[in-house]
Design brief:
Number of domains: 1
Order of helices and strands: HHHH
Oligomer: single chain
Length: 128
C-alpha cells in the first residue's frame, strides 16, 4: 500500500471501526495528518493567528476533519494485532501511549486473530 492508497482508504472508511488496518495504512495516515496539520498551521500564521487563541480556523478544521478517521484507523490497527479497539483508551493514562506505540509498530497477526476480516494489505505483500 502506498501513501495515496492509504489516505484514500482511510477517507473511504471515515468512521469504520470494524476490520483491520495494516501498518502501512496506519502510518501513512498518521504522516498525512501531520503534514496536513503543519500546512494548516502555516495558513493560520499567514492569516495572522498569533498562537495565543486567535483565529486558528484552518488548524481547527483540519483537526475536526482528521480526528474521526484517525481514531478509526487506530482501532483497526489494534484489531490487526489482535487487540480490542477499547485498548485505545489506555492512551488517556499517558504511559499507555508507549504501549499503543509498541502495538502500532508490530506486524499484523493472521493466525488466531479474533478480527479475521480482510486486511488492507493482501496476503503475500509487505505491510510496511
Amino acid at each position: 500500500m502506498n501513501f495515496f492508497d492509504a489516505v484514500k482508504t482511510c477517507l473511504m472508511k471515515y468512521a469504520t471501526f470494524q476490520g483491520r488496518a495494516a501498518r502501512a495504512e496506519f502510518w501513512y495516515w498518521t504522516l498525512f495528518s501531520w503534514l496536513l496539520s503543519l500546512a494548516a498551521m502555516a495558513v493560520d500564521q499567514a492569516g495572522g493567528a498569533d498562537g495565543t487563541g486567535g483565529a486558528q480556523l484552518a488548524s481547527t478544521l483540519v483537526m475536526l476533519a482528521t480526528w474521526l478517521p484517525g481514531l478509526a484507523v487506530a482501532v483497526r490497527r489494534l484489531h490487526d494485532v489482535n487487540r480490542s479497539g477499547w485498548w485505545f483508551l489506555v492512551a488517556f493514562t499517558g504511559i499507555g501511549l508507549l504501549l499503543l506505540l509498541y502495538w502500532f509498530v508490530q506486524p499484523g497477526k493472521d493466525e488466531g486473530n479474533a478480527y479475521q476480516s480482510e486486511r488492507a494489505t493482501p496476503k503475500g505483500e509487505s505491510s510496511c
